[in-house]
Amino acid sequence: MQLKQRLISIKENGYQAPPDAYGLVQEMIHHIGSVDAELRDELIYETLSQWIPGNVLTVGELNQLLPILLDEEHLMFKLGEAGTDSVFTRSFSMLVIPLVFTRHKESPFLLQEQIHQIKESVCNSLRKERDYRGYDESKGWAHAIAHGADALDELAQCSGLDGSDLSTILSLVHEKITITDRIYADGEDERLVRPIVSVLNRNLLSRAAVEQWIRSFADVEKSPEFLPAFRQRVNIKNFLKSLYFRVKYYKLHDDLCPAIEQTLYTVEPVYYTR
Fold it and tell me: Mean pLDDT, to the nearest integer, of 36-60?
């Protein structure tokens, strides 16, 4: 039976795992970058999202799976390409990493060295990612930046990372928000806010350091060309607005609101002047 038909059958049976579950997982990971959106997203990812947190795989099997997810054929696959199908392999390999951390939070099994290796791989992949597509009309979700944000969110919550690691996450989010290639149009700003809130919730960084990071969005080097500068400004404004309402609504770190307000005014004062 072909993989797609087999996964459809498993889904119809409530994701009950067969005896050869790990072998099937290996096959799923091999096809994780399929351009068939149903196979990639609704079948492979959804099955993994049931099985990995659901303890279908042993710790030993997860430890075998992790290096595969992070290798040159998956998370790092043709990294730097834009507009090609390679993004689906990178993006959906990235999306499996939060599932591993969900399992780790319930029953810790990752060693400190592994956590830092994952962090380095995730940050390296996201830093070098140049395909900023969200939804592709013919092939479904690419969403490499949003999936990277999900992985950063899990990393930010991990007690194995310290203040220096959290500062790295802030810097990386800043870098991806200030791109000039494209205006994010598929919720990337909201997804990138999540790891920031998780960083704040750790309470390892000083308030002064966080406020300085917020204000740094007003100090980015601006392109002399109109369109790149416009895209960057829109991305910054959308992100800061998303961050503002997230912290304000949940009243977790709403003392940051004045710094966000002032930065928004500095980025484009024309919209905040009567």
Answer: 97
